[in-house]
Write a structure and sequence with these properties.
This is Winged helix-turn helix domain-containing protein. The protein is an alpha+beta fold. It has one domain: Arc Repressor Mutant, subunit A, CATH 1.10.10. It is 41% helix and 15% strand. It has a three-stranded antiparallel β-sheet with strand order 1-3-2. The termini are far apart. 23% of the residues are buried. The mean pLDDT is 89.
Length: 94
């Protein structure tokens, strides 16, 4: 069942999409530090489940923190974007 209610601020969704497309590896700590967000796993889940983003993850380090990144070779032009990040598709084409 699809829902338009994200439980995350649209600007956080945009931030996650923008940074994954830019090739960054994200962690919850990164999101807290850069945008005071706290729902990274929820955004990642939504991108995977509803938008079919090929996001990979792995626990790393002594603190066992989960890291997320787009599968290498992913074409950002072929991704489906949530409404708050849809204009990234236009920026990437420019």
């Amino acid at each position: 069942m699809s829902s338009n209610h994200w439980h995350s601020n649209p600007s956080q969704v945009f931030w996650v999409c923008k940074n994954l497309v830019a090739g960054r590896t994200l962690t919850h700590k990164t999101e807290i530090r850069e945008v005071n967000g706290w729902r990274l796993a929820a955004v990642i889940h939504k991108l995977r489940a509803e938008y079919h983003w090929p996001i990979e993850d792995r626990y790393r380090g002594k603190d066992n923190i989960k890291h997320y990144w787009l599968r290498p070779g992913t074409d950002p032009q072929k991704l489906r974007y949530p409404p708050s990040a849809a204009h990234l598709l236009d920026e990437d084409a420019a």
